[in-house]
User: Fold this.
Amino acid sequence: MEAILYICHGSRVKQAADEAVAFIQKVMQKVDAPIQEIGFLELAEPSIAESFERCVNKGATTIIAVPILLLTAAHAKEDIPEEIAHLQSRFPKIELKFGKPIGVHKKMIEILLERIKETSIPIKQNASVLLVGRGSSDPDVKRDLTTIGKLLEQKSFVKQVQVCFLTAAEPSFEQALERLRQDEVEQIFVIPYLFFTGILMKKIEKTIQKIKREHGPDYILCDYLGYHPIIEDILYEQISELQNQK
Assistant:
């Protein structure tokens, strides 16, 4: 019997975990699988181990583990595989299949364009976009977000798209803002490349509010990505491919 195990990051902010669960429940409605469970890597419950065991107890013989992550970093390369490998050692008869983070996907650009458009603010001639990622010491994260920024630049009507990070990578959010000020950009659309609200989103909001009280260009804070229907479709396609994998 086949089971889908959706693995979310988790957050100290309850709203973030609630958003994740509500989103996964929508994906579950599209997926044809007799067993579907949600587990959190950290900071929320149930844990990956608890949800894995639920799948087994319900009769799963195959478990498809799907990480609900935007970019490929340590969580996808190390933390989740190590946890799943440990669980498989306890249940050696279970067949495992692994999904992958969304990564560089052209459909994600449609969400970014939507986030700019929904501000209803006319784009000025020398406007820029600042794409703000969570950040990681893994160089693949910087590479992938930079590629996404370039794809957005090609499809948008802004002069340039720059990327920055909130933790563990450069340029930092503050460094990128300072660079744009020095470039005398008169309008900046800030897009948080985040799934959910939380401590990092609040940091962005606080920084932008502070800047708005000072003199300078227009800073427009767009909404974070959220769990968009396009992301539902991407996950559904990935799960379908794994289900058909022999």
